[in-house]
Write the structure tokens for this entry.
Amino acid sequence: MSVFFDSPLSEDAIPEGEAELLLANIGITEGISTPESGDYRQLLAAVHDVAEHVLALPDYTARANIERYPRRNVVRPSFQDQDYGAAWAHKFSIQGNQEGTLLKGKTVCLKDNITVAGVPQFFGTDAIPAWTSGTDATVVTRALEAGANIVGTTICENFCNSTSSYTSAQGTVHNPYAEGFSAGGSTSGGSALVGGGLVDIAIGADQGGSIRVPSSFCGCVGLKPTHGLVPYTGISSSDAINDHAGPIARNVRDVALCLDAISGRDDYDDRTLGAPLCGSTTFFKSLQVSVANFKIGLLVEGFEHRLVDPVVKQTVMDAAYAFEKLGATVQQVSLPLHLEGPAIWTIQARIAGTLGLMGFAHGRRGLFSTEYEAARQPWTSASFQKLFPSTKNTIINGLSLMKNYPGLYAKTMNIAQQIRDSYEKLFQEYDIIVMPTTPFVAPSNIEWKEGDSPMAALKPSMGITTNTAIFNVTGHPAMSLPVGFASSHEDATTRLPVGMQIVGGLWQEQKILNAALAWEEANDWKTIGTRDDVQNFPFKL
């Protein structure tokens, strides 16, 4: 029994019949008899007193070392100071450890769901006010210790709920290779800046493809590591099962360097309990420009999906068979359960994502952003109306699924485990499997405004994560590697990057990195699928 029964209870704060009303909201109308009602009201008063007591306690946080790493010139860029439309959330300068080696001299930007002490965070929305953390995310601390110079935070999509680049309340991000076309999402700003050559590395987050999709669209190398290899402490989450953070760069070597810098166990994040100790990985030192004796599988279901553009399919197929010239064996393989991936991810992400957005996420140990929770507060009609349709849709879907299918999440996760086990069995025979990252190249951005059709807002993003989202549920490491260009369906004269997704077994990042480096060293992707009159230099607004 709570010790708070020894103190006066604030029973007056609990209206009569509150327990009955709470139960009625879940369809229980005869759960409490009249004689019991007063007791349950008193018990509610007790737990409310406990809640008020906990809220009054000082918070526990990992304070940022601002003295060692001061934040200089924090500014929200004006339109004139922006790149690729609205790629920057905030510009600033934090100089990294001068004795750091892995990322010394590298410029790094951060997706705007990664906390930086003293820098306001938007999370792609204006439905709630921007909030400012007093802590640095673990990946920020590690990047600075490795010598990185962090130059800003970059636009992410609305609550990270889109793979397009026009949903952020802070503005639209354009593809660095073609103005007016999508940079992908939700790590939209960082991918555009890296793909355009303005920043060396972006640290992004991926819960359905949000590192790999924009990397594919923007001609970047983007890695979603094994679930738990890179800490998520200090990064806004929609669901801990899907949470992945990782590097985006223009080449494989920089991805490996960044992965060494930011990966490893974090005592605050229970996702990382199976990860190696921080500083113990050797992804960069262990790089080999060789796939000799590799056995590579071309996943039939990843190529043959009805949404895959024929030119994208052929470009990735040609890139995959190029591994044979490097000494690998390449074979077509089938895993029919791959086709269930979008359905499994949709149910899992909608239910868990809704709980996260509503402040009901639970079941994990960690350090959490109480600044974000204070800014978010309970949803109101006014704040909900300001959300982009993709985020509104997540909440509406999640509430409906929880109401009408209360046992569905459990079965969904069982099937997810079946798919994970099936992939792991495949990786007993194959070193990596490959497929197109996205089924088509970057579509054009749309100009959506409040009051426009929700379906029109969502349609350009439909199907983009056909091959990516399932690996968030299974936790497998997956990389997008640029392998050429293909024409836009909307404008045949516009050529846009094509990404090949390379997937490995759990904790097998080294195989992915080695295969990607071997392909990268042997091929100039910018000359594949281009014409003599197509310039290979990124467009800059």
